[in-house]
Design a protein that fits this description.
Keywords: Nucleus, Repeat, rRNA processing, WD repeat. This is U3 small nucleolar RNA-associated protein 15 homolog. The protein is an alpha+beta fold. The protein contains 12 helices and 28 strands. The strands form 7 sheets. It has a 4-stranded antiparallel β-sheet with strand order 1-28-27-26, with no helix packed on it. A 4-stranded antiparallel β-sheet has the order 2-3-4-5, with no helix packed on it.
């Protein structure tokens, strides 16, 4: 009796993901470390100076984490209600944060008690930051106002009330110590100069603005709101350069890498998109478990920290280059180790012992071996096979058809099983690699269960979906045939024979001879 041969699953080439330098670079981060905070993480900010600690604002606390620590190394908790937008100064020595009660607190990183408290806003302050001169603070609140504060005297120097809705984001120019920018839920982004009494530029974003970012050069401004990320040329009076719509839900945060060549955006759709700042195309994407509220990249691009709505802090560290070099330098066995004895031919006096290889059969092969066709089909319709390796399901169907037992395997099924079969066929019948087999399966299912049509609303619905899928595919094929005909006509026009100079002379000579 011949031994059983397992079902051969044909290998079909797939269009794989295009591997680029960006793909390799951004994949070079370790498995993330997850830290649970007390509430939604509304702001993450890295210290600009080594060792690049980062401040996490969540609930009524500000936690300071070391780059590789999973526990906070310092906590600021002098808030009666929620804290917002804890931001470092450029020298990393001071930290400023807003609060739900409307006050702004300034902390020294070497202490715990606030150095200064600035009171003036009547509602929650969601935006605070330092101007580049290091001695003034800008703020924006839910009272629609934006203010400037002097640190040494703890007084408000100027206040602007030009927004008509909550001010929820802002940033300061790195080059000019008097310029800062705010974004509001009134759909506008305003540029302020501390030397003037009103804004110097207003940009209409079109959606409630969740985040703004100024390039280090000061010439380009990025705003995020709704599903859009928009880039504006400030030097041309706020001219729109590009509008990006790569997210499915509201974009909540923006970030630049250290070189300014990559722009990162986080969204409520659980994705972080990475754009090239030259072409503004997505070069990579990260997927997270829940909606993203905040995002930060360390000054040396070694750490990506993402804060989410469920209070989880996701920290990814870049794999060190030294370990890669060491692994590459690791001595590998010589080539002769692998080929040793491969070409040895047994001599006449040698006693040859063959070691039979053990063939481990899969569940569906065991069932096919014992001629249990229906159970074999059930085995390949399990979720982990039909969803992730549909080629195995189709290969078993093809084998059952070759044996002539496919009809009996399909027959005698209940409403739920018929619906499952029809769902699989409807989804995969339009794939060219599966079409020949699944068309046969669809025909058999229709023949077997035609008498019971109308008895189950669920099965009837699946039959209608199958009909619609096949109808759409036929329409696509007809359109493609029309396009193919057009292309044939174009190619025929392009390859039309042209008369050469030599042929013209020959024809002229023949005419002269006849004359």
């Amino acid at each position: 009796m011949a031994s059983y041969k397992p079902v051969v699953v044909p290998a079909v080439p797939r269009l794989g993901e295009k591997i680029t330098q960006d793909t390799l670079y951004w994949r070079g981060y370790k498995t993330p470390v997850q830290i649970k905070e007390f509430g939604a993480v509304n702001k993450i900010d890295f210290s600009p100076v080594s060792p690049y600690n980062y401040a996490v604002t969540a609930s009524s606390r500000i936690h300071i984490y070391g780059r590789y620590s999973q526990e906070p190394i310092k906590t600021f908790s002098r808030f009666r209600d929620a804290a917002y937008c804890a931001t470092y100064r450029d020298d990393g020595k001071l930290l400023v944060a807003g609060s739900e009660e409307g006050s702004i607190r300034l902390f020294d990183m070497s202490g715990r008690a606030p150095l200064r408290q600035f009171d003036g806003h009547t509602k929650a302050v969601h935006v605070v930051g330092f101007l580049s001169d290091k001695y003034r603070i800008f703020s924006g609140g839910d009272d629609y106002s934006s203010s400037l504060w002097d640190i040494p005297t703890a007084t408000e120097t100027v206040s602007y009330s030009e927004h008509s809705d909550y001010v929820r984001c802002g940033c300061a120019s790195k080059l000019n110590g008097d310029v800062f920018i705010t974004g509001s839920y009134d759909h506008t982004v305003k540029v302020f100069d501390a030397r003037t009494k009103s804004s110097v530029m207003t940009i209409e974003h079109g959606h409630p603005v969740e985040s703004v970012l100024l390039f280090p050069s000061g010439g380009l401004l990025v705003s995020a709101g709704g599903r859009y990320v928009k880039v504006w040329d400030v030097l041309k009076g706020g001219q729109l350069l590009v509008s990006l719509k790569n997210h499915h839900k509201t974009v909540t945060c923006l970030c630049l890498n250290s070189s300014g060549q990559r722009l990162l955006s986080g969204s409520l759709d659980r994705h972080v998109k990475i754009y090239s700042t030259t072409s503004y195309k997505v070069v990579h994407s990260f997927n997270y478990a829940t909606s993203i509220l905040s995002l930060a990249l360390s000054p040396e691009d070694e750490t990506i920290v993402v804060g989410m709505t469920n209070g989880v802090l996701n920290v990814k560290h870049r794999k060190p280059e030294e370990s890669k070099e060491k692994s590459q330098k690791k001595r590998q066995p010589a080539y002769r180790t692998y080929v040793k004895g491969r070409n040895y031919m047994p001599k006449q006096e040698d006693f040859y012992v063959s070691k039979p290889g053990k063939c481990v059969l899969r569940k569906y092969d065991k069932l096919l071996k014992s001629f249990q066709s229906s159970k074999a089909l059930d085995a390949v319709l399990e979720p982990h096979i039909r969803l992730y390796t549909p080629e195995v399901t189709v290969a078993v169907m093809q084998e059952l058809n070759r044996r002539g037992t496919l009809r009996s395997a399909l027959a005698g099924r209940d409403e739920k099983q018929i619906s499952l079969l029809l769902t699989f066929v409807t989804r995969r019948v339009i794939e060219p690699r599966f079409t020949p087999v699944l068309v046969t399966v669809a025909d058999m299912i229709t023949d077997i269960y035609q008498p019971v049509v109308g008895q189950s609303a669920l099965v009837d619905k699946q039959f209608l979906r199958l009909q619609e899928a096949i109808g759409r595919e036929i329409d696509y094929q007809e359109e493609l045939l029309e396009v193919l005909g057009m292309m044939d006509a174009l190619f025929a026009t392009l390859t039309k024979k042209t008369t050469t100079y030599l042929e013209e002379n020959k024809s002229n000579g023949l005419e002269k001879t006849l004359d």
